[in-house]
Amino acid sequence: MRISNRFIDNGVTGGFFLAGQFILLALWGLTGWIKPLTDLTVSSFLQPTVNTLLAALGIISIFFFGLLLDLLATGFSPFIQEEIISMKSHLDHNQDWLEETLEKEDPYFKEGSDKFKAAYVALFGAKKYNRNLYIRLFHHQWMERRHRSSLSDKAQEEKLTVNYYRLRYFFNSYVLLNSGLPQLDTLTDQVHLWRASRAICIATVVWAFELPIVLLIWLAEAVFARQWLPDLATVVHFIISWPVLFVLAFLTFSMTNTAFARMCSTLFSLTRVTYVKKEE
Predict the structure, then answer these.
(1) pTM over 0.90
(2) I need a labelling partner for 214 at 20 to 30 A (CA). Which of 61, 125, 244, 271 fits?
(3) What is the per-residue pLDDT across 125-142, written as a single tens digit (0 to 9) for each?
(4) Domain that holds residue 136
């Protein structure tokens, strides 16, 4: 991925996050900290410099939050689990030609594929791929970890994750190095879409987990400022935003999984075409 494309992705996701964050703060009545900033007076001599500095800080903030969302997404366990499940599904659907390809191209990656499948079977057994969203997001993340706490299972989890990344980077490298094309827009477009949807999902998750913090702020105001409740409109906005944000988080999570599945379909198709072309 070129640096310019990375900046565009981070700019879009960072701008989305900040715009949504300011809208939520306004709905929740938490914009009082802005008023002191607007009341500041600056001399006309320094005004152009201050405006330039604020504009630069705004642009930097957009790209910073975009990069931060991308980094948070890489360590978000539900994403990794769904990516592993999707990768296993595509390996099974393409095993008629993929086994021969991996063994012929590089025994190292053939070994990685075998270890990946063995670790997957050891951890998930015969469970189906299309579990409902609640089980996918919460059940496997929290409930199963309480029952799979032995050292052998932890070793299988580590082996599964390591070999998943090994296979994914192998397919990417194989297509990029052997396709003979300077650019693979079909694949890169899918990668951009997947990364952007993943960062947007993280943004919605952050917003959803801000709701208890808002309650704590209101509680602090009730204790120290004797302001027992915000105005009625703010309370209504807060009540409505609670289910909306959680539904939005689930929806973007599902969209992210769909984007990754499409990227995998494109990647495996290009791998097959590249292998056939190389053998001719």
Answers:
(1) no
(2) 61
(3) 655 444 443 444 444 444
(4) 87-178
